[in-house]
Amino acid sequence: MHQSDLKLFIRYFKRYTLFQGSLFALSLFLLLLGTALQLPVPLIFKEIIDRIIPAKDLPLLGIYSLLILVVVILREFTLYFSKLVDQKLRNGIYKKMVDELLYVYYQLPFKKVKEKDSGYFYSRVFNEPAEIEESLTSTATFAIKVFLIFFFGLIVCLRLSWKLTLFVLFLSTGFYFLNLLFGKKIRDYSLKFQEFKARFGEIALEVLKGFKIVNLMQVVVPVKKILSPALNDYLGIRLKRVEVSGIYSGVYGVLSDFLPVGVFLFGSIEIVRGNLTVGGLVAFMELMRYISSPMDSISEIFIEIQTTAGVIERIEEFKATADRNGGVSFEGSINAISLENVAVDFGGNRFIEGLSYEFVKGKKYAILGPNGSGKSTLIEIITGLINPSEGTVKLNSTLPLEKVSKKDYFKRLSVSFYPPLLLPTLKDNLALISDGKLREVAKKDILKEREDDVKFSQLSAGEKQKLSLLIALSRENCDFLILDEPLANLDDVSKEYYWTLIENYSRGKGLIVALPSAEIDLSGFEKMFLEKVEHNSST
C-alpha cells in the first residue's frame, strides 16, 4: 500500500468522521469494550483445562460456564449498538459529502455539464460518496479494532509463550511484503472501475429515457448494441479488479492458514518439552483465532484503503474542475451587456461568428431565427454560462464578463430557458415564485385541483413553460430579464396572457427574448436576426 494512499484516507477520515465528535467517541468506546470482551474467554478455557477438569470441580465449572455466557451476551449487545452507531456515522458522512459535491456540481463550467449526461454526474455526486462513507467508517473502525485485538492479544500471548509469539510475528512480515507487491495494481484498477462505471451509467440512463420510442419503433436490439460496448468495458474492468484482488487474497489466505497450523505444531513441541501446558496451548490457539482473524483482514483493509483512495482521487479531481465563481466582485446595477466580435464553436461547428451588439437596461430586444441559428447558444453567452470561442462580453461597456464573479452577475439576471428544467415537484417550484400575484396565477393555471406534490415531469409541456416563466418574472432586483422561447407550447389565449405578464413585469429592466419568429406583436422591440449556420443540428 502506498503511503500517499494512507495519508489521503486519513485526511478524509479526519474531515468526515472526526467532525461528528461525541458520536465518534461513542463508537470508539463500544469498539474498545467489544475488543476487551473477546479476550477473557481463552483465559477461562485455560483455567478449565489445566485446573478445573483435573480437580473434577463441577460447581466451579458451572460458574465458569455462566461467566463465558455472560461475556458472550455482553459482546453481542456491544456489537449490536456498535452497528447502530456506525450507521449513524455513515449517514452523517454521506450527507456531508453529498452536500459538498452537489455544491461543486452547480459550480461546474456549463460546457463541461453539456459534455456529459446527468447519469454520469449522478454517479459522481451520489454513488461515489456511498462507497467512501462505508469505507471511512467500516474500514477505519475495523482497522482500529484489528490493532486493539492484535496489541492486547499479543500481550496475553507473550505471557503464555514468548517463543510461539515470536514465531507469529516472524510470519507476519510476509503479509507486509505481499501488500507492497499488489497495492498499486489494485489501486489502478479501482480508478478505472469507477470511471467505466460512470460512463456506463451515463449511457444506460439515456437508453432508459427512450422508453417510448424504443417500444413504438421496436428497436430493442439496436439499443442493446448501443449499450453493449460500455457494458463490456464496465464488466471487463470489474472482472479484472476481482481477478487481481482474488490473487492477492488467495496468497494472503495461504499464509493465514499456515499460521495456526504452524502454531499448533510448534506448541505441541513446547508441551513435550514441558514449556507449555495443554490448557496454555488451547488458550494460545483461541487467542490466535482472534489475532489471525484481524491479520487475515489486514489484506482486506489494505485493499479497501487503496480502493477508497482511488475514489477519493476521483472526487478530488471532480472538485478541481469546478468553477469557483471567482473573479472581481460586482456591486450595483448592470446598465449594459455588450458583445464584441463574438464567435461560438461547439461540436466542431461554428454557430455564431463576428457578432457585436449591445443590450441596454430599460430596452426590449427580440432575438429571432430558426432552429439551429444559435439563439439558445447566444442566450448562454449573454448569461455567462459559456464563454465565447472568440471575442468578449462586457458589462457596462468596460468590465469583461469573464473577470467578474459569476455569483454576483447571476444575482442581476432572471432567466427562463427552453426547454424548461426545474425542481422535482410542483410544490418545490411554486416556492420559487416570490410574487404573490404570480403565485396565484400559478395555482389557478397550473396547480388547479391537483395535489402540489405532483412531479414536474408529469406536467404538460405548456404547464412547464408557464411555471418557468412565472418563476423568472417573479425575481426581484434584477436588471435583465432573459427568456428563451417563452411562448413555446402555449395556446393562443395563453400566449396573449403571458406576453402581457412579460411586458408588465419587465418594466424598468432590460428584456431579451429569443423567438423562432415574430409570432407576437414586437412593437417597441429592437430585433436581431440570426441565420441558420450550415451543418448545425441544434439550437
UniProtKB/TrEMBL annotation:
Identify its membrane topology class.
Answer: Multi-pass membrane protein
Q: GO: which molecular function terms?
A: ABC-type oligopeptide transporter activity; ATP binding; ATP hydrolysis activity
Please report the stretch or stretches of sequence annotated as the ABC transmembrane type-1 domain.
Answer: 25-307
Q: Which organism is it from?
A: candidate division WOR-3 bacterium
Q: Name one Pfam family in it.
A: ABC_membrane
Protein name per its UniProtKB record: ABC transporter ATP-binding protein
Gene3D superfamilies, per database record: ABC transporter type 1, transmembrane domain, P-loop containing nucleotide triphosphate hydrolases
Query: For the ABC transporter domain, which residue ranges apply?
Result: 337-539
**Entry keyword annotation includes Transmembrane:** yes
Q: According to its UniProt record, where is this protein located?
A: Cell membrane
> Which cellular component terms (GO) are annotated to the entry?
plasma membrane
Q: So where does this one cross the membrane?
A: 62-81, 136-156, 162-182
Q: Which UniProt keywords apply?
A: ATP-binding, Membrane, Nucleotide-binding, Transmembrane, Transmembrane helix
Kindly indicate whether the keyword ATP-binding belongs to this entry: yes
